[in-house]
């Protein structure tokens, strides 16, 4: 009788372990990605998307958003300000939240945001995209995309820190695209 119970317990454990492994494999195959047709990860951002050009937002596209995501957040910032040899702060270039989870990206020089999307304040004290404009050296620009399990309330043009506080405990997935730029 004990042998039979032990066999059943082992069989049950094998079924549970297999089901767990299959679930984990499905989750890992649904990794969220963020790309741009204007630059590749780790490469230079073209001048057109900076203060030396038209200062328009680069095209961004994403995939692998979790099925249970209710909204997306995009934050673009530069952790190398003002000098990458001696960074003192992170400069925020763009803050968007409540992007619909079924949006597949943003076009170059986006004029109309997806319905329901809210903008936060960048470190110039305004909404909208502000492109790279490093005062010295080559800076890195992190384009960070978050999938949340909630729609956030209207936060009345939040800064990055306020938005990150509101996101706490609601991030389902995160990805980033890093580009760099140095003025000529």
Overall mean confidence score, pLDDT: 88
Apparent shape: globular
Largest sheet: 5 strands, antiparallel
Structural class: alpha+beta
CATH topology of the largest domain: Phosphatidylethanolamine-binding Protein
Q: How many domains in all?
A: 2
CATH architecture of the largest domain: Alpha-Beta Complex
- The residue fraction in helices comes out at 10-25%
Give a structural overview:
The structure is a single chain. Helices cover 20% and strands 29% of the residues. It is α+β, with helices and mostly antiparallel strands. It has 2 domains: 1-30; 31-181, Phosphatidylethanolamine-binding Protein (Alpha-Beta Complex). The strands form 2 sheets. It has a 5-stranded antiparallel sheet. Strands 1-2-5 form a 3-stranded antiparallel sheet, with no helix packed on it. The relative contact order is 0.21. The model is unreliable at 3-29 (pLDDT under 50).
């Amino acid at each position: 009788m004990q042998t039979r119970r032990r066999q059943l317990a082992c069989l049950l454990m094998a079924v549970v372990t297999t089901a767990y492994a299959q679930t984990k494999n499905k989750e890992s195959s649904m990794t969220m990605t963020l790309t741009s047709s204007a630059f590749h990860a780790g490469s230079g951002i073209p001048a057109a998307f900076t203060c030396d050009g038209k200062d328009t937002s680069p095209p961004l596209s994403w995939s692998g958003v979790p099925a249970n995501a209710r909204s997306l957040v995009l934050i673009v910032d530069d952790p190398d300000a003002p000098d990458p040899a001696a960074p003192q702060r992170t400069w925020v270039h763009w803050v968007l939240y409540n992007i619909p989870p079924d949006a597949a990206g943003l076009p170059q020089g986006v004029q109309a945001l997806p319905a329901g999307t809210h903008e936060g304040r960048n470190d110039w004290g305004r909404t909208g995209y502000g492109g790279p404009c490093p005062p010295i050296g080559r800076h890195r620009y992190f384009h960070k995309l978050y999938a949340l399990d909630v729609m956030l309330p209207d936060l009345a043009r939040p800064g990055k820190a306020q938005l990150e506080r509101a996101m706490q405990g609601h991030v389902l997935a995160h990805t980033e695209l890093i580009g760099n730029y140095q003025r000529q």
